[in-house]
Amino acid sequence: MTTAQLNPTPDPVRQHVEMLHRLADGVDGLLVASAFNANLHSDKGTITHHHVGDVDGMVAAIDAHRDTPGANVYCGLQVMRRSLARGQRGGEKDIVAVLGLVADLDADTGKAAGEYPLAPNYVIETSPGNLQPFWLFDTPLTPDVAKEIARGLKMATGSDHGTADIAHVWRVPGTLNWPNAKKLARGRSPEPVPVTVTAPWDGTVTSAADLHRAVGAYAVSAAEPVMLGDLPEVDGVEVSTEAAALLGANGVDDRSAHAARVVEKLAFDGHPAEVAAALFLSATGDWLERYPTEERATADFQRLWGRFGAPHVESRANAEAFAARVVARVSGTAPAPANDNRNEKKDGPTFPGILTSAEFVRGFTPPDYLIDGIIQSGFLYSITGQTGSGKTAVALLVASCLALGEPLADQEVKQGRILYFAGENPDDVRMRWIGLCHELAIDPADIDAHFVEGVFSISEFAERIERDVAALGGCAAIFVDTTAAYFPGMDENSNVEMGHYARLLRSLTRIPCRPAVIAASHPVKNAAADNLLPRGGGAFLNEVDGNLSLAKKGDRTSELHWQGKFRGPDFKPITFDLPEIKVPTLVDSRGREIPTVRAVVVEESEIAARAQASSREDSDVLLAVRNNGNRSLRELAECLGWNNTNGEPDKRKVQRVTERLKRSGHVVYELSAWKLTKKGDAAATEAATQRHKAESSKRMVEGLVAKSRSRRTNRNRKGTEAA
């Protein structure tokens, strides 16, 4: 066997295709391969569609053209919708997700004058001197977000127009670049050149947020600067706490980036451009002093407003227009034209008028509960839980209860149609729904539940959603799984972006049937069970009507309550078990049953029994640690007589209890030994006292019973002797 056989040269086509499928993993859609022949005057191309994961099929489709004279092969960095017509390459409107961006640096046309905003993850050379650096995203982006970054990337790199086109396709390394007539006219040799990799992909990816920030400075120059009128006095102008902090900040590292944040926050808060400019120029923080003149600061504000402020103004106007259309449809009347409004100052606030007590209380609308005491029609809720807390399983159970009109933990439920956006992992949602329907003994065809599979832009398709919901006859609730999957911005931890996103979700509650919107959300980073707030801080939380928290309470058990905010009376926490289930209708391609997870409500009597058992287990471990804390988990299990189903010491049970005691501050683990804290020592003493009392009472009762039996026996004996 030769060395070449031992170490075969990697196939660049396969490596490129594997990279695309790895980046697209979890996205529901199609990857497209295209081949066009440079020797033909008119060629519609050979187009093949490939589901995410079909690496072999896509490689075979490309390989089919390797030896065809004139065949140029391309693949895009986008995932297209599954319903794309056969033989169609698709355009921007067909894109489901964008996996990365490419700068088209054609040295032979002079389109390579810029610089890299960040180091690319991968670079190919399509012909001598013509490079295509790839920035591969850490998470797939929606088309509208990717398009904005692409425009900035084109400006930053000085590259060809293809850079800004998110539907553009790119050559595949390992194939040949055949020149077309236009390139031959520029003096290109008629001989094809191989497309090669100059910087292989090492598996790294680029943060979309970082790339957005890096190209933002270039995009500013492309935005239309705002033209300012006379600036007003800022005395008496109210600013938010966050804006005040930004205006007064000292010692910032990057003046330009900080100035952009100031402008964006002022625009987000609703200040007109002139008011925002006056506030900007009157900032007390030392960042403003870094501008050499007030004229330079003003010019920078004008550019920044065009880039960061104007989109907020436009977004607010679009949202108001959408809300007005919804209101008009609900009321059956068109909005009054502007010249029919009251003769108020055009840009000033309107006074609502003084109401009598009777008029004021007549405005009360009784709550319309879908789930009694918890979920109201027309309200926006987040369900925030740690990974593994069962957000999807609980959301599907709640959805089934609504669709069937079945109680949830003894809470009355109003039956209604549900719509479920399965965005984060549609296949997992599908499996859980199959399992849940089997466990509930219902046919999925007999339940009034409807699903949207995969990620899409909620803002772009808002009217389509409203139209399709109306065609269904309305719906009682819309479930969004998850907020991260449908997030249209760059940074989930950005208060500004998440505030916009929450308002977008709230717009779904305003369609005529007034559905409740329930969005499964990820918590802030490293969130504990008592800090289950959705990402985006106060900006997101302020926009929802309630944040339902789902906290893990042990192995496969979670508790639903609320944290941070809840409009309505308090309700009892609901405990769910999350058992793994297997059902005969859920099998793989070889007929083997696939496990999935469902949520089951735990009855109050069972909760009480578990609490008592947990208390007993806690006391057992506290007393064992007080007796000897130098034992391992296995030794503690042996000491306590805790065995698993295999008859072996149950280390996992001991670990679960010790972790619970650590969280509650009763024990610590230091220098390879368990130790009781002051709180733990007091609890152990109390446990020992209670057990002593219990044992004493038990012995007393046993003694009394024994005496009673002895007396009875003696009486019987005497009676027998007397007879």
TrEMBL record:
<dbReference type="Pfam" id="PF16793">
    <property type="entry name" value="RepB_primase"/>
</dbReference>
<feature type="compositionally biased region" description="Basic residues">
    <location>
        <begin position="708"/>
        <end position="717"/>
    </location>
</feature>
<dbReference type="InterPro" id="IPR027417">
    <property type="entry name" value="P-loop_NTPase"/>
</dbReference>
<protein>
    <submittedName>
        <fullName>AAA family ATPase</fullName>
    </submittedName>
</protein>
<dbReference type="InterPro" id="IPR039459">
    <property type="entry name" value="RepB-like_DNA_primase_dom"/>
</dbReference>
<feature type="compositionally biased region" description="Basic and acidic residues">
    <location>
        <begin position="692"/>
        <end position="701"/>
    </location>
</feature>
<dbReference type="Pfam" id="PF13481">
    <property type="entry name" value="AAA_25"/>
</dbReference>
<feature type="domain" description="RepB-like DNA primase">
    <location>
        <begin position="118"/>
        <end position="183"/>
    </location>
</feature>
<feature type="region of interest" description="Disordered">
    <location>
        <begin position="680"/>
        <end position="723"/>
    </location>
</feature>
